[in-house]
Amino acid sequence: MGQTPLLTFTDRGIHCPAGDFYIDPWRPVARAVITHAHSDHARPGHGAYLATPGTATVMRHRLGPIRVDCAGYGEAVTINGVTVSFHPAGHVPGSAQVRVEHGGEVWVVSGDYKTAPDGLSEPFEPIRCHAFISECTFGLPVFRWEPNTLVMARINRWWAENAAAGRVSVIGAYALGKAQRVLAGLDPSIGPIVAHGAVEAVNVALRGVGYALPPTARLADTTGADLRRALVLAPPGAVGSTWARRLGEMAEASASGWMAIRGIRRRRGLGTGFVISDHADFVGLTDAIRATGADRVFVTHGYTGPFRRWLEDQGYQAGVVETEFAGEEADVGADQGPDQAGDHALPTEPDAEGGAIRE
């Protein structure tokens, strides 16, 4: 009989048999270790939660009264003899990779991550390990992000042009993570920054644990010339809704990694799409995996088939993990308030071919 792996993959989620806890489980369990507060990773119904303070505050906002213990980055917690610690994932404020150590073996569950700094989230920290569980949402070479500063400069120019023409600027961005990332890079000298209620609720929660976000105004308090110069941050589902129509003449845009694919912009009817993602691009994924020094890599939610083949071509022992981590359809833009999952769902767009991966 072989030794039981440190982490196993079950119908409830990623399980540590030695410690008897789960990481980001999608069905109710007694003890859940949570990487971040998006709804596909932090679900209701668990007996006890362990998370970073930033993740815990948003979970309490989303899930109500829950039993949640907090651990800071790098702080070791022992669960039934297994050592667990959180390390920055760079995905959204408070997001973490989970390092699990027992019997001289180390596994790391990345959750969702990005390796490029965004000026708000805690920067990604590569962790040495024997086995690494990695997302690959954007695991094709076609996905390569520009620096955050360049994208934000483009957004500010677009806003300034609209303000000069007397048009309200509306950006659809996920209420947890993406909206705050855009907010942190805006130039408030252009005009007022207005946050949809779902976005502002997350802003308040994050400000409460020390994240420095620029001030935002309420729509009810912004009228006339001020509104025509404003930039409005709203969840994707609110753009084009009855709520948005009361803004008057407007210019709409979407902030998403999927904006790299022209067909999605066409289907959404958006003339403007800003390519900005809270997930690693192809280069970020491959660099992160190399930095772990892991021999075994398991990939989940994304272009798992071609990315696994690339890993095997590079000499890794690679596998695909089936999970229930999933976000809104990229070309629909449905939104569920502050607890949406982000950019996960794959588009059915032929521009992003699923063929062999080559650097």
From TrEMBL:
<keyword id="KW-0540">Nuclease</keyword>
<keyword id="KW-0378">Hydrolase</keyword>
<dbReference type="GO" id="GO:0004527">
    <property type="term" value="F:exonuclease activity"/>
</dbReference>
<keyword id="KW-0269">Exonuclease</keyword>
<dbReference type="InterPro" id="IPR050698">
    <property type="entry name" value="MBL"/>
</dbReference>
<feature type="region of interest" description="Disordered">
    <location>
        <begin position="326"/>
        <end position="359"/>
    </location>
</feature>
<dbReference type="InterPro" id="IPR026360">
    <property type="entry name" value="Xnuc_lig_assoc"/>
</dbReference>
<dbReference type="GO" id="GO:0016874">
    <property type="term" value="F:ligase activity"/>
</dbReference>
<dbReference type="InterPro" id="IPR036866">
    <property type="entry name" value="RibonucZ/Hydroxyglut_hydro"/>
</dbReference>
<dbReference type="GO" id="GO:0004521">
    <property type="term" value="F:RNA endonuclease activity"/>
</dbReference>
<keyword id="KW-0436">Ligase</keyword>
<protein>
    <submittedName>
        <fullName>Ligase-associated DNA damage response exonuclease</fullName>
        <ecNumber>3.1.-.-</ecNumber>
    </submittedName>
</protein>
